[in-house]
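A student in our group prepared the protein record below, which I am reviewing. Thanks in advance; the entry in question is below.
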Amino acid sequence: LSPIVELNVGGEMYTTTLSTLKKHPGSKLAEMFTGQPKLRTDSEGRFFIDRPGTYFKYILEYLRSNQVPTQCIQDVYREAVFYDIEPLVKQLEDSPQIFGELVARKQFLARVPSYSENIELMIRIARAEAVASRRSSVIVCVVRTEEDAAKCQDALNSLDMDKKSVVKFGPWKASPSISDLLDCIQMDVEAKGYKISFQPHVAEKGFRFKSYDFFYKFLFTWW
């Protein structure tokens, strides 16, 4: 019979067998218990894994019965990747949530130049303007084509403001629209804990282009 193993995973206690933990020999989890266990123990002698214990129950359930979780998919996927349980990783990647994120949204954003850097730039600008304020705003220029990028530059030249504070996204070669990209920006900024909304930027009188052609105002609310 396989030895019984007691685990402390991030403060959550689990009891299982060594054969269950080593079910997938090439996994990182199996390697932890191959030969001399490569883990510290807590004060009660349980093997300690410094990971979120809440989601380990789904990992364990998969190892015991091949049951793929239907809850907390994103979090379980992250843990499955950490433990390098390849069959579970592949099955989770086929789920609508992970498939949509990895294959659809992430692949689109990979075609938007400097997307992640621009998200961080937006946050830095908003934080710099937040002193003694409830809200701060960031002007974003979104262009889908090279032609629009040239028009955007002309429009920027006629803006009566610091052009360095305008964050430019695009162009890109993919089917999603400007509104899709705006939704992605809001989603990814909110994922970092910020409260944010956006609307077409209302330009000053005499501006050469309609405000909603390229420019949007993202509003950060701090309190």
